[in-house]
Amino acid sequence: ETAVFQTPNYHVTQVGNEVSFNCKQTLGHDTMYWYKQDSKKLLKIMFSYNNKQLIVNETVPRRFSPQSSDKAHLNLRIKSVEPEDSAVYLCASSHGGNQDTQYFGPGTRLLVL
Amino acid sequence: AQSVTQPDARVTVSEGASLQLRCKYSYSGTPYLFWYVQYPRQGLQLLLKYYSGDPVVQGVNGFEAEFSKSNSSFHLRKASVHWSDSAVYFCVLSTGNYKYVFGAGTRLKVIA
Predict the structure, then answer these.
(1) DSSP type of residue A74
(2) Is the CB of A98 less than 8 angstroms away from the CB of B100?
(3) Domain spans of chain B?
(4) Does the beta-carbon distance from A41 to B41 stay under 8 Å?
(5) Over the stretch B45-101, which tens digit does the pLDDT of each residue have?
(6) Which chain B residues are closer than 8 Å to A99 by Cβ?
(7) A109 near A22, Cβ under 8 Å?
(8) CA-CA distances (angstroms) from residue B22 to A104, B4, B33, B62, B96?
(9) Per the CB < 8 Å rule, is B107 touching A90?
(10) B38 contact A CB<8A
(11) Which homologous superfamily is B3-111 in?
C-alpha cells in the first residue's frame, strides 16, 4: 500500500524551464528525503529534512531547492533545468534519520529535451 | 569515507535455483545495513535490515542476509528464486545523521 505519494509520474520539459515535483507522506514520519536516480540506477541523496528543517544538503547545483510546508510534504523545485537533470527523482520518508527504515514513493521521471 | 560495493551489476539465475547477491561495505563505526528491492517503474521496498544480534536476518518473500563483521559483508540469499524476483536489489548502509549510502545495485534476471 502506497504511503509516499509523488506527482507527477512523468514530466517532459525543455532546457531552461522551471519544474516542481510534489511529495507527500501519510506515515506520520518526521524525516523526508529526495534522491536522484540516474539511468544506470545509481541513487544519490540530494536533501534530507527533519520536521521541516534542512538536515542534509549534498552537493547539488543551486538550481535545485527543496520546499517543505509541513513535515508531511517535501517538494522539489528545479529553477532552470539542464539536460543532465534527466533522471528519476525519488522521495522517501522515515520515522527518524538514524538507521530507520526508509519508505519510498514511486518516483517522478524527468526528461529534459 | 563510507561506501557500499555491490560487485555484480547483473546476475542471471534459473527459476528455482538458489541466489546470492553480494554486498561489501566500508565503515569504521557500527553499521546499520539494509537490502531494498526496486521493481520496474516503482520505488524501493525494504526486504530486510540488520542492526545487531543474530548475524542472519530473515526478510520478506523468503530472503535472508548474513552479516559478517570480519569480512565487512552483508550478502543477500534466497533458497529458490521465482520469476517475480526479477528486479534491482540495493544494499544500503546507514551511518546516522540522516545519511544513507547506497550500493550501485544488482539487476537480477530470473529465467525459465
Answers:
(1) -
(2) no
(3) 3-111
(4) no
(5) 999 999 888 999 999 999 999 999 999 999 999 999 999 999 999 999 998 778 889
(6) 32, 51, 94, 96
(7) no
(8) 23, 10, 13, 17, 23
(9) no
(10) yes
(11) Immunoglobulins (2.60.40.10)
- pLDDT of amino acid A2: 63
* Per-residue pLDDT tens listing for chain A (113 residues): 569 999 999 999 999 999 999 999 999 999 999 999 998 889 998 988 888 888 777 778 999 999 998 999 999 999 999 999 999 999 999 998 777 899 999 999 999 99
Residue A98: how many CB atoms within 10 A of its CB?
A: 14
The structural domains of chain A, ordered by start, are: 4-112 (2.60.40.10)
∠ CA(A106), CA(A108), CA(A113), 5° rounding? 150
C-alpha cell at A72: 508531511
The grid cell for A42 is: 545509481
